[in-house]
Amino acid sequence: MDPLPNPAPLASKLRNKLVRYHSIADNEWRVAKKTKDATVWRKQSEEFSGYLYKAQGVVEDVTNRIVDHIRPGPYRLDWDSLMTSMDILETFEENCCVMRYTTAGQLWNIIAPREFVDFSYTTSYEDGLLTCGISLDYGEVRPNFVRGFNHPCGWFCVPLKDSPGHSLLTGYIQTELRGMLPQSAVDTAMSSTLANFYSDLKKALKT
Description:
- The chain has four helices and twelve strands; from the N terminus they run αβββααβββββββββα.
- By secondary structure, the chain is of the alpha+beta class.
């Protein structure tokens, strides 16, 4: 088990990596799924053998409120149907923490419940916010869970210039689920999960 990292250099490195993902040219992405709420693309990850996913959609709300629903905190468990528990293990400052969370089984439990321990960091980006994270090898794995690993991932949320009550939400996700899984099942689950994330988030913001 690794000790907890020094948060400042990790946060800086993580932010820089997400900003780099955000500047990848459109022609490098291939559409994986399209719904009325979001479009999901993917490309080969540089971090592991799976895919880096990009999801994007317009959400009707102000940036701060949207990001408060996504980052670690009291809202996330209420609306995210995939997340079954969340504990903040360590808080470095208001916008920086280590959390442990668990996810439900997917695809008729072909993908068993997973546990993750992530470093999370929220910072300003242009006129909006970026909330990003990366998994840590920290803490004992609980029984009945496979420990997954999130390579650098995050959500950019910026207000639409011509409609300030709406925000453009763009996510970059590359999750290594680990365990014995067919890659095709993982790819199907990831695309659907990201599309559902937008519809669930929109419902939560309206309540």
